[in-house]
Amino acid sequence: MKNFEHYRSVWADDELRRHLARIRHVALDMDGTIYMGSTLFPFTRPFLARLRELGIDHSFLTNNPSKSIDDYLHRLDAMGIPTSREEMYTSTLATIDYLRKNLPAARRLFLLGTPSMVAEFRAAGFSEAGETADDRPDAVIVSFDMTLRYERLCRAAWWVSRGLPYLATNPDRICPTDLPTVLVDCGSICAAIAHATGRHPDVTLGKPDPNMLSGIRMRHGLQADEIAMVGDRIYTDVETAHNAGALGVLVLSGETTLEVAEQAPRRPHLIVDDIGTLGELLAASRSGDRFRQ
To answer: Could you state, in order of their start, the residue ranges of all structural domains in the chain?
Structure first.
């Protein structure tokens, strides 16, 4: 019998056990959860192996739209984590799905994003507006753009100021990294546009939008409480879980500290040091091993 101490929950152990025992699918954030920057965490592969042993499926969800699905699949494979396209869902795909459903006439876009993100939109049948004021797009898409050029930021702000439909791929202020720098993410770029134009995005996709989990529910025939949304951020990962009715698990391997987590308006259902601890708790919920806080 094994005791686990590196976790905190809003529930008593018996109730926590019941919730964990219902989990059939784990939706995993990536940056700060399974790796940090270019470094795979040592507990990631053992955790995925444990999920397989327990018969629990998993998907990778990321708010980072700077890479295409193929980029992510190649990166994960290089890290020793072979993954199928069906196991990946990014905020770029969420934005494309939103456009198709809610703005079907928007086909020509001003895309503030990386070449990989632009390629994903092209593959989905969209075209890219140019950088001149006479090439009016149907909508403006602002993303995490590590190739950002000042003149393109200005053009995006111009079209936003003209009242065009304006979507952001994700709300993140920074992107986690293991490098000695701050990676300014989509939310911060949108803040600059808002300061210049007085306008915020009409819609912000990605986590915490609950639709990030709807594909998993439909694909696997799951109830919301059979999914655990796992990540390192309160305002994206945990809020997604709350908004979708899933189990919200915060890992302390990335951005958020325990002190910040315990002061959140909507606290995580479960806080663990990392996904390795979550794997132990999932196993214990099925074996009768004892929990101890």
So the answer is: 7-59+225-287, 92-204
Residue 102 CB coordination number (10 Å): 12
pLDDT of res. 149: 97
Report strand pairing: 7-9 vs 270-272. antiparallel
C-alpha angle 188-128-184 in degrees, rounded to nearest 5: 15
CATH topology of domain 92-204: Rossmann fold (3.40.50)
C-alpha–C-alpha distance, residues 66 and 143, integer Å: 8
Residue 178 has a pLDDT of: 78
In one letter, which amino acid is 61?
Answer: L
Q: Please, what is the Cα angle at 77 between 76 and 82, to 5 degrees? A: 95
The predicted pLDDT at position 214 comes to: 83
- Give me 88's structure tokens: 């990946």
Whether the CB-CB separation of 238 and 268 falls below 8 Å is answered with: yes
DSSP-derived secondary structure for 171-229 = --SEE--SSSS-EE-HHHHHHHHHHHHS---SEE-STTSTHHHHHHHHHHT--GGGEEE
Domain 7-59+225-287: CATH class, spelled out: alpha beta
What SS3 state is found at 81? coil
The pLDDT averaged over each successive group of 10 residues in the chain (293 residues) is: 72 95 97 91 97 97 91 94 93 92 96 96 96 97 97 98 97 87 97 98 94 85 97 94 97 93 94 97 88 62
- Strand 166-168 and strand 139-142: the pairing is parallel
CA distances from 8 to 164, 252, 258, 280 (A): 45, 11, 10, 14
Which of helix, strand or coil describes residue 57?
Answer: strand
62, 29 Cβ separation under 8 angstroms: yes
Domains 7-59+225-287 and 92-204 fall in the same CATH topology:
yes
- Do residues 61 and 212 lie in contact, with contact meaning Cβ atoms separated by under 8 Å? yes
